[in-house]
Amino acid sequence: MSKTPVSILQEMMVKKKTVPNYELIHDGGGTHINTFKYQVSCDGLIATGVGRSKKDAKHEAAEAMLKAIAEHRGYPQLPASPAQSPLRTPLPPTVPEIQRIPPNVPFVNAVGALQDLCAENNLQEPKYILISDVGPPHAKIFTIQCVVAAFKEDGVARTKKQAKQEAAKKMLHKINDLLADSKDIDSSALELEDANADAQSNDIAKTRYLTLSRLPSQKKVNLGFKLSEYHIKIKDSFESEVRQRLMDKLRSIIPVDHSNISEEFVEHILSEFKEILSTVDLNLTVMCLESANPQTHVVAMKINTSPDIVQVGLGHSQLEAQFYTLLKLINSMIQFLE
Questions:
Q1: What is the pTM of this model?
Q2: Does residue 286 or residue 99 have the better pLDDT?
């Protein structure tokens, strides 16, 4: 296996009883097109390297230093070792080299792009399967398979992350090609129908009706309970003693006086409500929603019962909206338990 510029430079300097000094002089940049810059100094020379990751930048710096040493000092670069480590499982006949992304080219997340493409076209969610990892611990070769419906694509690389990206990239190209072909076919069919609409519309409708009429009707999804039983589903999920104790605790935290709505007041009620829910393994979710009126705040709360209990409240402040939502949610749960 070929040695990297970093390892070659390290071996060269160790023979001179010293080591290269690497320094990160630019760390990313905080955008989607991060670039890193490393500076390496050794043997009286300084070189820099830029890359899309710290690893790439460090390798670029080491490679620049090797060129500087060869040019100014006349030192030969260490050749790659011709021998490979003994392996119990043979490596693939050709190990693909993943090209480094230039610093000025934005990184495209193929895994995320494929996820979005499948969601937009109602396709199954991509699945990634580790097919094999062969080679010694320091030189593993990973093969990951991407599966979408009946389509499969493999990615092979020296890291699992790169192999997953390669598999997703291949699948992304395949699905995009299929969608493009489908659009071409659809557009051609539409042009043909437009040209012969008056003459063929009745025949097409009759043919399609005969075909569709033979198809089985789609079965309704079983939600687990009937709509008519919605109001008693939560009540039936608790024993009578537990239900009564739960209602008593809920009634006890409902405040009588609403005139003083402070942050401590609302936080106290919210904390007690969460504690009561935890005794029956229920959780509370709080969400702040956008409002068309900037002077009105909207807060939604949900309890993960079966079915969920959801309430929405409005207020002149977020604290006030949270308080009114909390009261409505407590009263709603009491009604479902009665």
A1: 0.35
A2: 286
